Amino acid sequence: MAGSSKEHTGSNGEHHNHEFNGTFSPVPIKKSKLATSRDLTIGTPLQTRAASPYTLKPPIDSDGLSWPSMGARARIDQTPEEAAARELRIANAVKTILQELGEDTDREGLLETPERYARAMLFFTKGYEDNIRDVIKKAVFEEDHDEMVIVRDIEVYSLCEHHLVPFFGKAHIAYIPNKRVLGLSKLARLAEMYSRRFQVQERLTKQIAMALLEILRPRGVAVVIEATHMCMVSRGVQKTGSSTTTSCMLGCFRDQQKTREEFLTLLGRK
Ligand SMILES: [Zn+2]
To answer: Ligand 1 centroid to 233 CA: how many Å?
Structure first.
């Protein structure tokens, strides 16, 4: 993944290791609140947008989880015995699906498929369990750099939450620092953390952007994702090869056309 990424930064300064102190989100979480005062102070346009049940909350919970699923905490805290029991329940459900589809679950090729599929689904949704403090550990640096940073072509694999089939493609993440930068490989880790969940592409794009905004408080963040959805291309809804592009522009990327254009030019889109 990291190997295929192309990176661009405006200049190359000296990095000073600045250990992340773990104080992202001192504000208590209030589900009913649309926009926090922090949104207003950093000038994001989020409070003017339609509310999403997923991004109403601040990106990072007090325990370091970021928009976790309802059962994420139970998965994190489970004992090995509980984990095995969970895997078995999923496998039994998969066996039922196969039987209802008319399959013989005792034939050789399918014998261990339910267990394999259970493990695969747990892997594909492991992003709910990620703790953002572990993800970006020791990779926030004080840096007097104020030019655009872009990491292009980050591979993302996710699952469409409407059909539970994959969508996959490339994410491009950019930001303009405000005295703090993030280790470049961590941008890919953020994309991984939010794509290993049940997603819609629009939310995935927004979550990456909002998390980066929260972590670095930069002058602006831009995220573009281009992806192919199996639920579209394999069911004949659209021709094979069609792809979907989503973007989320925050801060100066939203306010300043020049900044947005520089970003799109660097992406090769203009
Ligand atoms: Zn779908």
So the answer is: 10
Q: What is the pLDDT of residues 247-269, one digit of tens each?
A: 999 999 999 999 999 999 998 87
Tell me which residue has tokens 């747990």. 122
Output the six-digit token pair for 13.
Answer: 């300064």
Residues of the chain with CATH 1.10.286: 72-124
Give the separation between CA 259 and CA 264, rounded to whole angstroms: 9
Rounded to an integer, what distance in angstroms lies between the CA atom of residue 77 and that of residue 218?
34
CA of 244 from ligand 1 middle (Å) equals 12
Task: Please state which of the four CATH numbers 3.40.720, 1.10.530, 1.10.286, 2.40.128 is assigned to the domain occupying 72-124.
Answer: 1.10.286
Look at residues 257, 269, 185, 165 and name the one whose alpha carbon lies nearest to residue 224.
269
pTM: 0.79
Tell me which of 15, 99, 112, 162 is the catalytic residue: 162
Tell me the CA–centroid distance for residue 160 and ligand 1, in Å: 5
Tell me the per-residue pLDDT of 40-57, one tens digit each, with 9 for 90 and over. 344 444 444 445 656 677
Identify the CATH number of the domain defined by range 139-266. 3.30.1130.10
SS3 (DSSP) at 141:
strand
Task: Confirm if 95 and 105 have CB atoms less than 8 A apart.
Answer: yes
Q: If phi over 0 gives left and psi between -120 and 50 gives alpha, with beta otherwise, what is residue 251?
A: left
Q: Tell me if residue 226 is catalytic.
A: no
Q: What is the per-residue pLDDT across 209-239, written as a single tens digit (0 to 9) for each?
A: 999 999 999 999 999 999 999 988 877 655 6
Q: DSSP 3-state assignment of 151?
A: strand
